[in-house]
Predict the structure.
Amino acid sequence: PYTTLFRSLAGRWLADRRQVPAEVAWPALAAAARHGDEALFDRVAGEAARAEPGERVRLAAALGRFREPGPAAAALALALDPATPAPAAAALLGEALAGRETRAGALAALDRGWDGLAPRLAPADAARLVEAAARTACEPAARAEVAGLLAPRVGALEGGTRALALALEEADACLAARARGAAAAARLLRR
């Protein structure tokens, strides 16, 4: 039921920005995108292409939230397209990296497209993208994958090495918290 409401609010807002207040429309669009189909994806992508830069970045981030395979793949292709402005590409990839269902595809896209994307990114956008990739690595294999993917590449970015180190510290803290939680649960279950 909420998905229908979110989709309705997002659709009304996409049709006419005056129909729904922005503080309602943006979260509704984000939620609708998570459950969105190709038609909604095409509509949001079209709006992003015509939007002013600030709104384009937010719409691109919404594109990164699509979980269905077709729209998710189209979003990643859009992020790696040199015609996509770098801030929008970084926002889209950042959202895709944060999604459990889209993370693996986003990491693969980052691996394939890094050399074309990284030189176009402003230092702050590059740092946020590095942090987004590493922040969600709360499993040993995921942490190793992210470190292996980014460590050899971030040295050329202003602040890239530091951004990766800080994000991997967050991942390490997450791993440690999980280990403590698992040990506490095991003790509790032995009682």
In short: Residues 46 and 59 are 10 Å apart (CA to CA). The mean pLDDT is 93. The two ends are 42 Å apart (CA to CA). The chain is about 75% helix and 0% strand.
